[in-house]
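Lab notes, practical 5.
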Amino acid sequence: MNAFEFQHQQLSRRALFGQGAVGIGSLALGSLMASQQPDPLAPALPHFAPKARRVIYLLQNGAPSHVDLFDYKPLLKQRHGMQIPESVVGGKRFSTMTGGQAARPVLGEITQFSRHGQSGATVSSFLPRIGAMADELCFIKSMHTTQVNHAPAITFLMTGGEQAGRPAMGAWLSYGLGSETEDLPAFVVMTSRDKEASCGQIFYDFYWGSGFLPSKYQGVKFRGSGDPVLYLSNPDGMSRELRRTMLDGLGELNAIKLRDHGDPETATRIAQYEMAYRMQSSVPELTDLSNEPKHILDMYGPDVLRQGSYAYNCLMARRLAERGVRFVQLMHAGWDQHRNLNTQLKIQCTDVDAPSAALVKDLKQRGLLEDTLVIWGGEFGRTPFLQGDITNTKQWGRDHHPYAFTIWMAGGGIRAGMTHGESDEFGFNAAKDKVHIHDLQATIMHLMGIDHERFTFRFQGRQFRLTDVHGEVVKPVLA
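Output from the prediction step:
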């Protein structure tokens, strides 16, 4: 008998509760531990056969410049340095950095564009690996949103609301579809940033929060250094067997609490204790790269072994996908080129180009891409006009631009080798086949087998959904 068992037997009140409730407690605990099943209170999902079983969202925080990377507009070069017409700007709102700027000269792209593959997609010379796999991708060049600043725009993109407090997309999917693995969370988040720390963006927890859903559905953030999850190792003097004994006793007590009070957060606590115990084995195996072939590591680029880098996180995303994680939210900051477009944009592209392409290629060669939806893009785009002084080339920049931007998608039921939508001749406004943020969310839900209008959660007297009261599935991009 170990010390914990001896102490447990001496606590007669606890022993009485344990013996009296062991039957009910064990049944309740067993039911709660069936974590691969959807929540019993969630709607019956999927509504129809899904094309995708999991999502990897490569969120490029700060917003890549669509007019420098994907959306080729010859008119920008032709009118470089000239004032952008007021008829185009049309009284649009911008951030405080250019909201009061009197001169708004057109800024031609600082890269070179070329067409790629049979699809003929235009991709910048700064992204050669992504360009080389253009026939695997679907580009949407008519994205538009409502917010001109980072935090509300990212919040809107990931939660469907501009203010913090609603469930993130990964939380919605975890709640509705459950998990395909018992050993890892259904919703995992990883963050990285440019090595130069060129911008001060913050990764707020509400970007992956569960909002008004039970907190068991919030994203689990893997750290960029040390143990990916805090307290992964047992403290000195505690064996795995002793930890198991402790959790069994704690689970029985929490099951009694759940039976008496019915608080869903008690169920969350039970489930998370058990998940933490299983992750003590699953996470070290996940992060052990010793069996990854050298040619795979080389494909992701030189930073792949540096924990916390974008390349490392992309490889982890593939390993999480093949282990059944439902939603991987990978966030990479550094795309905020307000005063350093001529220097930092190329650095940023170099950091993400090879890993992004490698992830898609790696998933495909393992047979995972066909049911894994990969999304790459920012929360908005960048202005076709210059932020700053046209004569000071060292400090050229572009401001936030919500009126037109580009994302790409791959796998998971998406039609490969196509471009959907267009912006106007300046790359300023979405002009053809416009796709709103809620349309993108509705499309992601559709690919996962969910009718976004029927998937709701009642809170504070109304039915909430990810797409609020908007959103149409973008059917032309579906395979």
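Observations recorded by the TA: The longest helix spans residues 341-365. The chain has two domains: 1-31+237-286, 47-228+292-477.
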